[in-house]
Amino acid sequence: MTDVDALRYPTGPFDPNPSLTSQERADLIEELAHFPADLRFLVMSLPDEQLDTPYREGGWTVRQVVHHLPDSHLQGYVRFKLAMTEESPTIKTYGQAEWGETADTRTGPVEMSLDLLEALHERWALFLKSLTEEDFSREYVHPEMGAVSLEKTLQLYVWHGKHHLGHIKLVAEG
Questions:
Q1: Residue 88 zone, left/alpha/beta (φ > 0; ψ -120 to 50; rest)
Q2: From the CB of residue 159, how many other CB atoms can be counted at a distance below 10 Å?
Q3: How far is CA 42 from the centre of its chain?
């Protein structure tokens, strides 16, 4: 991995397990449930100067990353709900780069996104714990990636959280 790749992917690229055990799935759901607390712990001690520091040249600031997380994870939650209530629904993508440049994302207090993420993950984890092993094989259709299983989606959003925690740690540790 190059230095640029290490900055872009501090926890490594997404590499899903094609077949999770019940215990691995349960562990991932717990990680997802606890992610907002890990994020809050990391960012609440950062001064505005660090919140407004990009994690790499050309990258988002820590503030933008914090606001991006509920934007993204709300999409993930909706994808799970759609896949569980419709047969292979085609989901809509969103312009995350453009969302990351809106005024609320660039300048808003991080506390509001931390609060939103906590509520979302509490509800999301409750929902995920109600799913059967068979439910995790259900799919939605992503316009660019094709059919995506809920098992892969769970792994993606857990990775996504760790990925951005890695970015924030780069700034926090200076």
A1: left
A2: 19
A3: 16
| Beta carbons within 10 angstroms of residue 41's beta carbon | 10
What are the tokens at 36? 């907002």
Strand partners, 103: none
Closest of 81, 46, 79, 87 to residue 156, by C-alpha? 79
Q: Do 131 and 150 meet the contact criterion of CB atoms below 8 Å apart? A: yes
Please state, in angstroms and rounded to a whole number, the distance separating the CA atoms of residues 86 and 84: 6
Round to whole Å and give the CA distance between 155 and 158: 5
Is residue 153 helix, strand or coil?
helix
Q: One-letter amino acid identity for 38?
A: D
pLDDT in tens, 115-143: 999 999 999 999 999 999 999 999 999 99
Enter the tokens of residue 92: 């809509």
The predicted structure's pLDDT at residue 1: 60
Which helix (H) or strand (E) is 140 found in, with range? strand 139-142
Structure tokens at 101: 């440049």
Give the rounded distance of the alpha carbon of 136 from its chain centre: 18
H/E element holding 49? Answer: helix 48-51
Decide: residue 95, CB within 10 A, 0-12 exposed, 13-18 middle, 19+ buried: exposed
The residue count of the chain comes to 174
